[in-house]
Amino acid sequence: MPTDAPARGLILVIEDEPAIAELIRLNLVAAGFAVRLERDGEAGLAAISRHSPAAVILDVGLPGIDGIEVCRRLRAAQDWTPVLFVTARDDEVDRIVGLELGADDYVTKPFSPRELVARVATVLRRTQRVTEAPATLQVGSIRLDPVERRVHAGDHEISLTATEFDLLAYLMRRPGRVFGRDQLLSEVWGYSAIAGARTVDVHIAQVRAKLREASPIRTVRGVGYAVEPNRAPGQAGA
Ligand code: CA
Predict the structure, then answer these.
(1) pLDDT tens sequence across 86-125
(2) What is the largest CA-CA distance in the chain?
(3) Among 32, 69, 90, 92, which residue carries the largest CB count within 10 Å?
(4) Which DSSP letter does residue 221 get?
(5) CA 157 / ligand 1 centre spacing (Å)
(6) Domain count, the chain
(7) CA neighbours within 13 Å on the CB side: how many for 107?
């Protein structure tokens, strides 16, 4: 990790255990991030709207409203700031992925601070990467603008989380190719097999639920997922 890294943006850490919050803060600062700490959900939500952090590290178990409710309120307000959950138990992981809260990633306690920092950097790289393929992508009625990070199904704009957007964009850039879950984890999330194949399935399900019948994503049984290529112009309308 370069020691001369410039400030890489503000990370808001919402964590009620001072020792853990401080450990996270020290590691983020060492990696070049600016850090703000909040100890409960209400203060955390206020800080998000006041400071517009680049990403939020969100403990699930908080006094007052818990981390899951914080994320729910954030997304209900159409705020798609990347959220990385810190969880203490597997059943919390089930709630995070099962409730389709629009979490971008999670780590389970006890976690390695370096791992957490790497996850933050990966999420930011994904959400801030706007130059890789500037051309608008279109498959069927789905139109994806990588620069403005907007997706439309026909005239209807679809709100996707950062991770959902990157997953859809990755598949739409490579129509007709089938990708396994491990490959998608590695290419889209930036690490392999840690979060498990279920993470991919859940995010695919979320994208499909939002795009409904316009979804171009096909399940290839026993292999993974692919986006159907557009038909050749002469075949359109069939
Ligand atoms: Ca806690």
Answers:
(1) 998 878 887 777 667 778 888 888 889 989 999 998 888 8
(2) 64
(3) 92
(4) T
(5) 36
(6) 2
(7) 18
